Amino acid sequence: MADLVRSVKSRIEDLARIDVSSVFKPNFFRQTPFRLTLVFLAVYVFVAALVFGYIWLATASESAAFGNATVDARLKSLRELDTLQGHAAVVGRILTDDTVEWGYAKGAFDGSGQLLAQNSRTKSEGQSLSRAMVQAGLERDPHVGDVATIAVTSSSKTGETRFQGRVQRLDDDFYVFVAMDMSWADHGFRQELKAALGGGILVVMLGLFAGTLINQEVTRSVGRVIAVLSQVQEGNLKARIPVRDSGDEIDDLSIRINETLDRMEKTMGNLKYAGDAIAHDLRSPLSRLRSKLEVSLFEVEQDPGQAHDALQKALDETDQLLRTFQTVFAISRLQAAGQAPDQAVFPASDLAADMAELYEAVAADKGLDFESEIEAGVRAFGNRDFIAQALANLLDNAIKYTPEGGGITFRLRRTSQREIEFSITDTGPGVPEKDRPRIAERFVRLENSRSLPGVGLGLSMVDAVAVAHKGRLVIDEGPGRFGHQGPGLRTALVLPPLQG
Amino acid sequence: MQVLIVEDDTEAALNMQKGLKEAGIEARLAGDGQQGLDAVKAQRPDVIILDRMMPVMDGVTMLTHMRGEGIDVPVLFLSALGELEDRVSGLRAGADDYLVKPYALPELVARVEALGRRKEKDAVETTLKVGDLEMNLISRQVKRQTTLIDLQPREFQLLEFLMRHAGQSVTRTMLLEKVWAYHFDPQTNVIDVHISRLRAKLDKGFDRPMLHTVRGEGYQLKA
Q1: Are strands A104-109 and A174-181 parallel, antiparallel or unpaired?
Q2: Are residues A373 and A261 in the same domain?
Q3: I need a surface site. Which of A262, A394, A434, B76 has the fewest CB within 10 A?
Q4: pLDDT digits over A249-300, tens only?
Q5: CA of B101 to nearest chain A CA: how many angstroms apart?
Q6: Are residues A305 and A157 in the same domain?
Q7: What is the domain count for chain A?
Q8: How many helices (H) and strands (E) would you count in chain B?
Q9: Domain identity same for A169 and A273
Q10: Last residue of a domain, one of A163, A197, A227
Q11: Could you read off the pLDDT of A429-488 as tens digits, one per residue?
């Protein structure tokens, strides 16, 4: 009970909070819930009119049938009286009929249309009723028989009354008629119509009111969504729509918008991170370039003959910096986009063969044994150039770190899960297990690699390429130690199976 | 060879012009796509260097217009660093080659020379000849003087490219792109190793070497 009171109270407070000016702003009638209410009410009115039309038709025919039956019963009794006792008895009955049945007008007239008798009801309706009866009797269609049916509206001092009657020819010079006052039927229908109209107006009023309330409610819910979206538009990516857990479609919409905003915020965060990272990553190579230029300047001052060499060195250093920048940029773009651009199905076996051919020469040049095992007919989905770049980085690392006399094995195979695995195994010094998780981070170089050229972006690039293809970079144990070789390292770029 | 540089960055354009002049190539400048289009119609250059980002009319639009009007002058498309989509859109619009900014001048010159040369040689050839080196494209036989040189398929392609651009410098990037058809940074001296293998087969036993290394640029095959 207390709950109910509280909910009613809060509802009333809600109503009190309705800002009338906002409800009745010019476009109020164009708001969806209110428009729906109007449509609903229009349909309601139309259906109600149809129903009443039908009721009217049905009751009209019913009451007409009833009128005919009672009128016929009274005509029959007059006809029987005439047969038994003659015209005078009929005239007498009509004249004395009066008070018994006020709802029936009765009368008799002769062949010339001269009224012979009428009861008080007929008289009270004035001449219009009797005249219509006489006319109907005399002009009746002889083929139909001795009876004529007529519906007539009489006008008298008391107003208009609808009658339904029949005229009976008893002989050429004697006619009787009976007509029933049908106003009871009309009156009943009118009562019903009046009640229905009252009810209908009530329904329409309540409907409009409810429509306004619903409209208010929906406008408020949608308003919350719009408010949050305008906040986002103004740059507040943290704004979220409150969800009421009512499970309705507004909640559904809110949840979806919130999820979209989450993703947007994350992407923006990634981009910002990428930008910050680029700035951060380029700080040290730039300072290095600057100090080298400083030293060169100093050297040139000492010996102007070195100017060309100094400039050449500076140029090489700038090229190196640009390459670094390009790689950092590519990694950031891949990470921010979440997937590699321009992906297509390509023959992975051909790519592997090309890479093997390219790098076999480099390995041989360094005195390394290079072997490749490439499964034929393997196809993959991805950006061929990015995959090539990743494999180039892995092969280059293997060749760079493996001492002379060592060996490198390059494989392409499909795993039992149909994944596409490019792997490179070398007999170099390998990477201690504790260092493996971080060697794919940007600019991470291990102690014993500092003496070799490179900036520590190679594996970061491979990792970014792998992730951008929904694949992964695997760093594993090598073949083990033998002689002065090993324990070695096995790196693999694994791509998801080709769909279909 | 007459080159048209369509580039809104005047300093960059002047640098290009200087670099090309150094290599004996004359170049004129246009500041945007619209000027570029007018200049192409008026001067009929042999090669166009076209920047992607320009006011009034950008590079892709100009290129599309040009190709739409049936002007098939070779185009070297310049795109900004890291804009991979630019490269793709440029090639789709009908560019013959592309270069990412910032580039090394020798790279630009080498590519312009290659594009200019391509236009001169439209005819279908069955044999290539550079000095005493002869390549039969049908039988795939290579002879220097009377010695038959045995080449691997890729070495054959590499030599064919060098012979078609004999007398010009070709860069390592160009070779990786045109001979191996890959666009990536090989990290190491991959191309050098393949060149030295080819050189060993080509120049061994002959007094005069044909395959030269051009410092800071790349390689050159000379008669």
Answers
A1: antiparallel
A2: no
A3: A434
A4: 888 888 899 988 888 887 777 677 667 767 776 777 788 888 888 888 888 8
A5: 10
A6: no
A7: 3
A8: 8, 12
A9: no
A10: A227
A11: 988 888 888 787 767 677 666 566 666 788 989 999 999 999 999 999 888 888 778 799
